[in-house]
Structure formats: C-alpha cells, structure tokens
Amino acid sequence: MQVHSFLHSDTETYTHVLADIQQNVCAVIDPVLDFDAKSGRTGTTGIDEVIDFVQSQDWQLVYIIETHAHADHLSGAIHLKETLGGQLVMGRYITDVQKIFKQIYNLDTRFRTDASQFDILTDAGDTLALGDITITAMHVPGHTPADMAYVATDDEKTVVFVGDTIFAPDVGTARCDFPGGDAKTLYQSIKKLLALADDTVMYLCHDYPSKGRRHCPTTTVAAQKQNNIHVKDGINEAEFVQMRERRDATLAMPRLIIPSVQVNIDAGHLPEPETNGTRYLKVPINVFGQ
Description:
Layout (H helix, E strand, L loop, with lengths): L1 E7 L4 E8 L4 E5 L2 E5 L4 E3 L1 H13 L2 E6 L8 E2 L1 H8 L2 E5 L2 H12 L14 E3 L4 E4 L2 E7 L8 E6 L4 E4 L21 H12 L6 E3 L14 E3 H7 L9 H12 L8 H8 L26
Parallel strand pairs: 3-6, 6-8, 8-9, 13-14
Antiparallel strand pairs: 1-2, 2-3, 4-5, 4-7, 10-11, 11-12, 12-13, 14-15
Helix pairs in contact: 1-2, 4-6
Protein name: MBL fold metallo-hydrolase
GO molecular function: hydrolase activity; metal ion binding; sulfur dioxygenase activity
InterPro entries: Metallo-B-lactamas, Mito_Persulfide_Diox, POD-like_MBL-fold, RibonucZ/Hydroxyglut_hydro
C-alpha cells in the first residue's frame, strides 16, 4: 500500500491517492476543482497534477471517493473521471443532504435526490476491493449526515481517510452548524475513529496549521487521543458539545460554500448551460450564516 497526498493550497484541501503498487490500481480521495469566486472561473491545475502523477505511475484509477459533500471546495471528480475513468463513490446518506439543499437552492425537478449521480453508494461496514487492499466504509456523521471515513487495510498496515470529521491535533474537529450537522453525533463518530489502533495513520482532508507549523497530511490515532485540542482523552461528550456549539456560533461561513454544495451534491457536475450557452450557479440570499 502506498498513499500520496497533494495539497490544494487555495482551499488547504488534501487529495490522496491510495495505490496497490503490485497490481497497479489506485483510488483518489477528495479531488478538488479550482474555482475563483471573484470571476466565477473554474480550472483544473490542481487536479491535473494528480492526474499526471497517476498516469506517470501507469496505474488504473478504480475509485474516486468523496468522503462527503464538501462545503469549502468544488469537487474535481467529473474531470478526473472523464480523464482517467473510475467509479464515483459516496456515502448513501448523501440523499439526506441532497433533499436538504434541494430546498435551500430551490432546485427544479431535474435535480435527483436519490444519489443516482454516483456510481457506488456505501453504508457502514461496506467494503471495496482495490487490488489486495480492502477499503471499509465507516459512517461518521455530525459534520454532515453523509460523512464517511474509509479504512484501508492490507497485509502490512491500516490507514484511515477521515474527511472533515477530525483535523490535526492543534486544529481540532469539524464544525457542526451546517444543515443536518450535530455536535453530539460528531463526538460519537470521532470516538469510532479513535477506537482504531493507536498506530493507525489518519489522512486528513484539510490542514489549517497553527503559526510556525507547515501543512501536514497525516496524524495518528495516538496523537489525536493525546493532543487533540477538542477531543483528547479526558474530554467528555458534554464538554465537547458545549465547546463545539459555542465555537460554531462564532465562525463565518466557508468562502466557497454557496458554489461548492450546489455542485457537490450533484456529484461535481456543473449546472447545465442555459439557452445562451452559459452555466449559472444560484445564490440564496439571507439563508447561510447569521
């Protein structure tokens, strides 16, 4: 098993490539599409770096895995799939998120809320075979209802791709104030992750390093239990919920939440062009934030 991580610097998002190098197969977790909010322009510079790497290794892309419908970047899954193939994987509870945001964006009847935009839907305990690597889905709601972590195991080691559920120890944990989020549920989900073996490497979806520390894509279960500022050993559920809810009340909305969620609940597809050939995103007024 090999994992290679690519930092998308504009959104501080990590895209990971998980590979069985003996069988020349791989999966890409949480790909990012460049998006400039000021101009409304998309780009593929970031995801093309991942594509070039996979092609240079002569690996077959089997899965494109989204840990959840991200609110801070647009998914690069469609460009990745059109270029390299692969099946698009999402947790089955994305249907809950689709129904919530279909109402918020007032999407018309063409928008499907049955998750049929995705190729594979996973539930807790479902497995995917990637060569000799077994990828097991772990349902970790709280940030959103649909969040999934993915535990990858082979004969040598176990790693876990945690999405937005938990961050580096000095950063803490995901916010829970988006529609469908819940701090108590997040605490219970994190406890599932921290029940993995102490030496399990956690691959993070984001890193927002404190001053003086460089971005890093990984941590360990042991490091989280010892040092995570929000959920280290000794912090109980009530303390966590109180902290999380107070903190969330002070946070601004993510810079790209309005375009990101709109695109990502549709598996990364941009809206269909209108009669003039231009695609448009909707902006709900006075809905998000305070």
